[in-house]
Design goal:
219 residues; alpha/beta; Beta-carbonic Anhydrase, Chain A; 2 domains; 7-stranded mixed beta sheet; 7 strands; binds zinc ion
């Protein structure tokens, strides 16, 4: 803990003064361009891997970068999604999974979660990814896990679309959805290409998009 407090003191001494104008500007308002949904994993740092500043990303993090489908009792993730789209007016949402994900490993290995009832319950929101991935052949346990991480990103994008605020923003053509998988060891990102449903290197295809919103009745 001392390292964290020392880090704060360093922030106050060095980083804050360098950005004092930015923080003054952000003191009473923020207009982030993007909602970034990713895992709580300590190795995934959204602002670092996208090189964004305070005020740029609205972030939701949880085990497995999960967005529960919209339902009769929407929870904290749903509220944050709704706020990001309907109030902050973000134009893009990224669902970002990652390599070596503990949540996805538990699902892929059918790890017994009897002693972790809250985790077991939470990971049910990834059930469609589990079922689809389990029905496929995989060359190795590693390949199975990598495929599940990708399938979960696809499943969470589908869950996202069940939210009324998302459906409306897509209908009105003011929202794009992105599905990414970040590789911790290489620092690379594979992005879901909507038309082909394939993951491609974002570095080679920087305009890759999972779903570009456009008015359904546009001429
Ligand atoms: Zn994870």
């Amino acid at each position: 803990m001392q390292a964290i407090i020392d880090g704060f003191l360093k922030f106050q001494r060095e980083a804050f003064p360098q950005r004092s104008a930015l923080f003054k500007q952000l003191a009473t308002r923020h207009t982030p361009s993007t909602l970034f949904v990713t895992c709580s994993d300590s190795r995934v740092v959204p602002e670092l891997l996208t090189q964004q500043e305070p005020g740029d990303l609205f972030v939701i993090r949880n085990a497995g970068n999960i967005v529960p489908s919209y339902g009769p009792e929407p929870g904290g993730v749903s509220a944050s999604v709704e706020y990001a789209v309907a109030v902050l007016g973000v134009g893009d949402i990224v669902i970002c999974g990652h390599s070596d994900c503990g949540a996805m490993t538990a699902i892929a290995n059918c790890t017994c979660l009897d002693h972790l009832p809250a985790v077991a319950n939470w990971l049910r929101h990834a059930e469609s990814a589990r079922v689809v991935n389990a029905a496929r052949q995989h060359a190795s346990a590693q390949a199975c896990l990598d495929a599940l991480v990708r399938e979960n990103v696809i499943a969470q994008l589908a869950n996202l679309k069940t939210h009324p605020a998302i459906a409306l923003a897509l209908e009105q053509g003011r929202l794009n959805l992105h599905g990414w998988v970040y590789d911790i060891e290489s620092g690379g990102i594979a992005a879901l290409d909507g038309p082909s449903q394939a993951f491609v290197p974002l570095a080679e295809y920087p305009h890759t998009c999972a779903l570009a919103g456009k008015p359904r009745h546009a001429a």
